[in-house]
Amino acid sequence: MADKFSIDDIISEYSEKVENDLKADESQENDENLNEDTNIDESIEKDNDTSDIDSDGYDPIKATDFDDELASDHTNEKKRNEENAALINNLTKHKKGKAAKQSIPPVNRASLKDIKMGLTGKIIPKTEEFDKALIPDDATYEEKSSILSQHRKKKVDSFVLKTDEQESEPDSDDTNDKDKAGQTEFKKFDDAEKVFGSIRHVKSNLVLRLCVLLFTGIFSTFITVANDLELPLIKTFDRTITPAAYLVANTILGLISIAVCYNVLLAGMKSLFKKEADNDTIAAIGIFITVIAGIINLFDPESIRDSVYHVYISVAIVGLIFNTLGKLMVVKRTERNFRYVAGDFERYAVTSVEDEEIAENFTRGAVAEPKIAAMRKTEFVDDFMKNSYTSDISDEYSKKISPYILIAGVVIALLSLIFDKGASNMKERLFIALAAFSGTVTMCSSFAVMLIVNVPLARATKKYLQYSAVMLGYSSVDEFADTNSLLVDAEQLFPKGSIELANLKLLSAISIEDCILMAASLSCQSGSVLKSTFYKMLRGKTELLYPVESYIYEDGLGLSGWIENKRVLLGTRELMENHSIDGLPSEAKEKEYTNGNVAVYLSISGITAAMFVIQVSPNLSVTRWLQELELEGITTVIRTVDGFLSQRFLSDLFDIESDSVKLLSFRYHKDYESETEYVPRQASSMLCSGHFPSFAMLVIGAKRLKFTAELGASVMYGATILAALIALIMMLAGSFVQLTPTLVIVYNLIVMGVALLIQHIKKL
Length: 764
Hints:
By secondary structure, the chain is an alpha/beta fold. The chain has 28 helices and 14 strands.
């Protein structure tokens, strides 16, 4: 036998040996055994004929782990297990003289659950009975997938998880299921159409509102700017000719604007009185104050003819326009995300490790105060609306700044009674004070309130969706911006094609079939990164695998398990040496055999059986995002059972610092499983496809969006303070009348442009 085998050589010899073994049995065993072997061959052929379109003979439809089906079909399963056991016995027996009649009882495999098929986290647990007859035998792969998809949705919808507190409470009505925006929460797949219709309805209303506001805003701004800059204008709206008409026009436009936004404005004012001001409060204060000022000014319109004071209704309407644009961004983002959340896609909820002790165990020696993010497979995402319409940093800004804006307006209005020089009598002084109040408020009420968060968030979420990554709202930023650790499985770092079997070196008389089946069984059971490689070698025939009685992972070394009452080791050279396994090639020979690749040794019953030469190639996308995580100071905590995946190896492979990754000790693997195991329903503000790049992208995005939002908020705080100072200085100078509505609009547009530009530059 040659020293080295390629993958094709292995498969070829594997098939040849199977055929030779069966022929030998036919010539040496009695008719009963011959008939038994023939039946086995026929069953194998039948399995091959009925396999679906998967190139490896793997049918995901049939692989679905329905517990009820396995229980109801126990008789057929037992027969199949006996046949598989007999086949394995034929495949792996040694030829030492004349073969004897089989005397070893067949391996009793309780169920297919004993076989790891690479479907961890993808099999839906039993929640209800499923009639297999619902899937026609002649159905296409797409039809089978559609049927199963609908079945999964029904199971999730029927899954109810109540706490003791919830069980003691009466069922809530629909009004309690509505979110901040007044939309019904998405609670089951059957409601998808209704919820999506609700989102579209809100979107349509916002578009209509925006159209009305654009009309009133453009009209009001045009006549205001034309008067301020003394541009040509029809006499009806020229305040020097017909001041009453000018005031009436602006006031009516303001009232129309209030009418189309009355629910938002009322909510904003209620929030102010509750000391919980938000973005709507800023817009409401401006429009209500300016319209009230306009109505009062109608009692003496002549004062405005000589530009003793100004009406700032146009400024407030422009503020309403940008408020509506921000809301429209939120709804459009929600609409895009809902298509994914309600669709038939793989969903992994991004969650936080809440248990502080477990978090400390995961990151001990790497992170001082761990904030760990993990992925959990799920079918249904709870709290979709809640997380989509959550408050953000701009609401916090509005809550803090709104009282001070009002105070600044009142102070400057009072000062106007003393310092303003334009008034000829007390009535005009009162009008000027009212104008000073409304002018100060509108100048301090930035147009960018709704945009400093929603513009970068809309840009980011749209990009993330292209990579099957979903960020529902700013709640994602609040929850994950402080993340300093990611919890991942080593398999996620090595997607398809990253790990291949380069060669195999037999080191004993143990057959190649035994070596492959033993190594494959231990790898698949433990979740090794070699699992996919062995699965490919076996052509997806996981029924050939041995059940693993037990296994442990010796940190940094490899796997140790029991298969068929035999001690099996799979790992590094150091693992073999620690167990005093003889028969290892010299280090020089190992380098010759591996040729720069990785050596993984297999030992069976204390005998060095084989050396698998593994070629590991870094995935470009994984490499990029590991490096991005390193730049953000985020440690990647990796669960692995492969001894060759050391920190040093990963550091060199992905070109990162070794302290940016941490390998999870085996004693914490159960805790890892509890933090990442499948659940039918999970509340989460971020979702992904389960791939490492999309996961890392979301966490990094949350951190960067927080910085961007805080940067925008800082600009707004500064702009508000500056606006108040400008208004104060102009009032003390007795020239507040110089602060025209046009200047206020220009100032706020400049502030908005600067804030968004700074955010964009930071992004670049």
